[in-house]
Amino acid sequence: MIPENHIPDEQKKKLRDIYQETLFNNFVPWWEKHSIDKEFGGYLTRLERDGTPYSYDKDMWMTGREVWMFSHIYNNYKQERQWGDYAKHGLDFMLKYAFKDDGKMYFRLNRKGEPLSNVLSLYTEVFASIAMAEYCKIEPNDELKQQAMIMYDRIMKRLGQPSDTPLLGYPLNAEFHLHAHDMVRLTVAWVYNDIWPSKKFEDDITLSWQSVIERHWKPEYKVLFENVAMDGSLMLDLPEGRMFHPGHAIESAWMMMEVAEKISNEELMSTSIDILLASLEHGWDNEFGGLRYVTNFDWTPPHNLEADMKLWWPHGESLYALLFAWAKTGRSDLEDWYNRVHDYTFSHFPDTEYGEWFGYLNRDGSPVWTAKANGWKGFFHLPRIFFRSYQLLS
């Protein structure tokens, strides 16, 4: 992925083995065993600690993510037949049941594919689109590619537009620019450009990272704000305008590092590392360890009652972002931060009895509950960053 790697060879091999072992001998087999619905098609997305379903509802944005993940490891690690089959298994169910007549998508279906909710259609379409694109690399299909391209254009028209709902909840009489829109635009454009290289996708990648830097990153505050005005000005009179989401900021940081490496933009690389470190320094819980889920930049009370909880995915994003930055620069401060995050993450989240990882911890590190999958936690964040980390270290 990058031409130089400053991580010492002995450490590099040790870490590579950890990521490879955890991904391919833990995460992947767990989801293969418990998530594939062989009776009705698609994936089971609500699973107890031991993999037993506690609900048979199927969340379509999690389905899109899982199709993409199985397709991605098939395309980029090893062409194992079952991974292609599992990807098609989820894709077929999604294509048959998830789409409305207008091309938008149901957010949640029951086990048989009957709709239960229309909520969050845009983000469902985002992950369905990358699933379709990635699967086209396994099995080229002109009709599926055309549908993916139509979805791409429809999604891009809606991203970056003024939003009156900065958080999941009710609309406000205000116009926000959402960092989440830049993130998902970059995600989709990156995947499409990897499958079908095009200036169109490159331009959307550029638009995305420039918007993150110019609108949301405020170096004078050392904060990447989630919600700003359309022109990038702050909206600090509203609690929604004070929101800082360490995990999102760090996820954007590694995405922009990958872009910076690809286009040889040292300034973008440096700024992305600044965002990474500022996010860790602000969000890290110095008393109990781990990364807080959400704060307000000024430590006024955030909306989210789970603000002080420690979630699986921000820690995963941090591991890869720090590995990438450390490998690129060799800086000791990045190595120190990596070791701190690694030690906390690997000592708190893994379930050594039933496999996979716990997703939700209290501030003190104890599990809130032990289920392994719900409408938000699935086969995506951890395998994605573990595979990227493995590739980086290889």
Protein described:
With 394 residues, the protein is mainly α. The protein folds into two domains: 1-34 and 245-394, Glycosyltransferase (Alpha/alpha barrel); 41-158. The chain is built from twelve helices and eleven strands. The strands form five sheets. A three-stranded antiparallel sheet has the order 1-2-3. Strands 4-7 form a two-stranded antiparallel ribbon. A hairpin with a 5-residue loop joins strand 2 and strand 3 (115-117). Helix 1 packs antiparallel against helix 12 (381-393), helix 8 (246-263) packs antiparallel against helix 9 and helix 8 (246-263) packs parallel to helix 10. The longest helix has 26 residues, at 9-34. The termini are close together. 48% of the residues are buried. The mean pLDDT is 96.
Number of helices: 12
What is the oligomer described by this structure?
single chain
Write down the overall mean pLDDT: 96
**Segments where pLDDT lies below 50 for 5+ residues?**
none
Please estimate the helix content: 40-55%
CATH topology of the largest domain: Glycosyltransferase
Radius of gyration, rounded? Answer: 20 Å
Largest sheet: 3 strands, antiparallel
Biggest sheet, spatial arrangement of strands: 1-2-3
- N-C termini distance: 9 Å
CATH top level label of the largest domain: Mainly Alpha
